[in-house]
Specification:
By secondary structure, this protein is of the alpha/beta class. Helices cover 51% and strands 10% of the residues. The protein is built from seven helices and five strands.
Amino acid sequence: MKLALCGTHSTGKTTLMRELKAQNILENYKYLPEITGTLKEKGFLINEAGTLETQIMVMNANIENLLCNDDFIVDRCILDGYAYTRWLHLHKEGTIPEWFARYANELAERYVASYDHIFFLPIEFDVEDDGVRSTQPQFREQVNNLLTNKIELHRYPNMHVIGGTIQQRVEQISAILGVKHE
């Protein structure tokens, strides 16, 4: 199965992935690295400073994950790439041209059904400054709104909203997937 955690930055996606791996909930699954952090390590600008080049790389990496892997979980999905692209298009004039904003939306619509399950994590925690993600609450809230609006508009059948503590989230994912956990 192809699984993704979805949500704006600092909602606990990476922490949840680590916990799923530690508890061996998804035996024999690949845990794919988070795309944005990997791009930052390569010198790409991210968050509010993102560029067209960054967003092209993000969307391509999401598609590559879907087309080149089976039985994986990743802590970003193509909807996240769309939402950050859309935010840059709306809030940073000249960064993302209209054609790419439309293209990112088309890619998201085309590939969202390729995931067997997407687990959306709403904002429940304060932002932690890890040196990678933005600490600006307004930016996080605006990206979250773009994601939730798209999710509510389309009511994706493979989308599950999960919340609570890390352990509660593990339990929710386990129940949805029908896997045992301790």
